[in-house]
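Kindly inspect both lines:
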Amino acid sequence: MTTSAHHAQVPHATAASAAGSPHVQRPQVYDAVLLAGFGGPEGQEDVIPFLRNVTRGRGIPDERLEEVATHYRHFGGVSPINEQNRTLRQALQQELDRRGLGLPVYWGNRNWDPYLGDAVKEADKAGHHRLLGIATSAYSSYSSCRQYREDFARALLETNLVGKVKIDKIRQFFDHPGFVTPFTESLHEALKSFTAAGHRPDEIRVLFCTHSIPTVDAEHSGPRDQNFGEAGGAYPAQHLAVAEKIMASVAEACGFAPAWELVYQSRSGPPSQPWLEPDVCDRIAELPAEGTQAVAIVPVGFLSDHMEVMWDLDEEAMEAAEEAGLQAVRTATPGAHPKFVQGLADLVEERINATVPEQRKHLTELGPWYDVCRPGCCENVRLGFQPAAAGLEP
């Protein structure tokens, strides 16, 4: 992949990343890893304050938030995402230690305690000033990449650590084998269960599912000077490329390739605003008329079984499948799968060593993605460009 040359600034970057090369060309010594999460409530009393944080600046009244809160209240007001990130942090720390890298892993969230600013202050207090960020999202879009970069910049500004603490970020890892392999393994098992139940390949459908985003955000995802074809932007193009790779691997293992498609979930915008479609539940309802008797739902857009997976898929999508008379399986997310954890450690090491692109692990033609995000990448057209780390301005 290539993008045009650019000489803008890379704010808050280490020396190796400050030049703005798509892939760093100088090794860099880091002091620590910064794991950046979305955050989630851990009790009934946390739910509305958490949702206020998620929707801040959008003027959504508490009455509307309470409608969304029912999803969390169904699970006792506890989102599993914080515990999952604690588990991932511990597993990653153990893997980095096993490799002798000597990097402590700090963890902070965008929307709930522990916050990123607190994690950055903790790192600074320990004398760790060159941080390598890992966002808990694999794909390119405003909400899954640039917003995390804005979070990094905001954390530095709010803690008055600009200039003292530097934050880089590993590349988007949508097509790294460590991320893709857990999906492939779980889908293989699901398809074996369908054939064992007597379903023919032409009766099986695979739905790769990811979070819907506004169409305009999808169109602006990825570098502005790169053409992603009919997909319209990096976000859908990356998902399609990963799904194709997973299906090719599964077909080789199973000896057959059922029909598949990319669907979306968790839409939250007003009806007047176009979002990516089709919706997963809408497609499930249509499948019986197309001869489908079994459906595998693959949450390819998600790292772990957080609320959107547990409610939108395990509750709503599975209910839709039951109503449609379909046998349905929701396959696993990477979570703290050993290969995923090893993949994250690989990404840390490639950044430390400035591994050349030709030697970086990736499974699609879109990779390996960029170490330093390109200018104008993943714009939120409603908010404009806000200060961000780990990428060329704006």
Observations:
- The beta strands are 32-37, 105-109, 130-135, 166-169, 204-211, 259-265, 294-298, 327-330.
- Confidence is low (pLDDT under 50) at residues 1-7.
